[in-house]
Amino acid sequence: MPTWALFSPQISAIHTSSILSAYNPNKPNKFLRYNKIVYPPQEEHEEPRPAFVCHQRTNIKYSPWKMWYIACLVRGMTVDEAIKQLKFVLKKGAKDVRETIEEARDLAIKRHNVEFGSNLWVAESFVGKGPVFKGVRRHARVRPGIVEYFHCHYFVRLEEGKPPKNYYLHAPKEPQEQLDDWLKQMRSRKIINSL
After folding, report:
1. How far apart are the first and last CA of the chain?
2. Phi and psi for 9 in degrees, rounded to 5?
3. What number of CA atoms fall less than 13 Å from residue 76's CA on the CB side?
4. Sign of the four-CA dihedral 166, 171, 176, 182
């Protein structure tokens, strides 16, 4: 038996053990479980339940804090409008978001019985933090500096139907209602320890 065979487990782990321990192969999979839910048949008097599809892209080499702005941009838009807007966003993460939305649209047509891909809107769009790899960079006078390489996960849920008029403001008030509420709040003020 050659002597190198006795040390092969140690030799095979040289220069890779720390990298493999930093990388987490467990991708987030809870979000995709929503696609597997089977709902019971609806009654005639119930409001029709819109079809939806959840999709994700994991381990994107991009900062999750920068990706958050792009994810917020497309919320509440139709799929066609979101893809159109993302073509003009000059950020690296916009390409990944656009491709993920296009993949989700194709998935909805092929597997989730959605008839028209243009009849979908972005109901949810958010970002999760992925693995962070640490590296070393040279500074002056032979001092090392730690560099962090951030990754992120992007999640999107497309829903069938028309998007809401106000995505962020669910119950918008008319100007007169806002004035009445403000007047009511002002008139209900009280000076403490007064008559």
Report:
1. 100
2. -60, -40
3. 9
4. negative
CA angle 66, 171, 45 (to 5 degrees): 110
Going by the DSSP 8-state scheme, the letter that residue 93 receives in this structure is H
Residues 6+ apart with CB under 8 A from 4: 11
Question: pTM to 2 decimals?
Answer: 0.77
Cα distances (Å, whole numbers) of residue 2 to 5, 6, 10, 13: 6, 7, 15, 19
> Which distant-in-sequence residues (6+ apart) come within 8 Å of 177 by Cβ?
none
Element (H, E) at 178: helix 175-187
Angle CA 150–54–165, to nearest 5 = 100
Residues 78-118 have pLDDT tens digits of 999 999 999 999 999 999 999 999 999 999 999 998 999 99
β-partners of residue 53 are 158
Rounded distance between C-alpha atoms, residue 91 and residue 65, angstroms = 12
Q: Max alpha carbon distance in the chain (Å)?
A: 100
Which distant-in-sequence residues (6+ apart) come within 8 Å of 81 by Cβ?
none
- What is the average pLDDT across 132-138? 95
Give the strands of the sheet with 52-60, arranged side by side: 52-60, 144-160, 120-138
Q: What residue type is 126 in one-letter code?
A: F
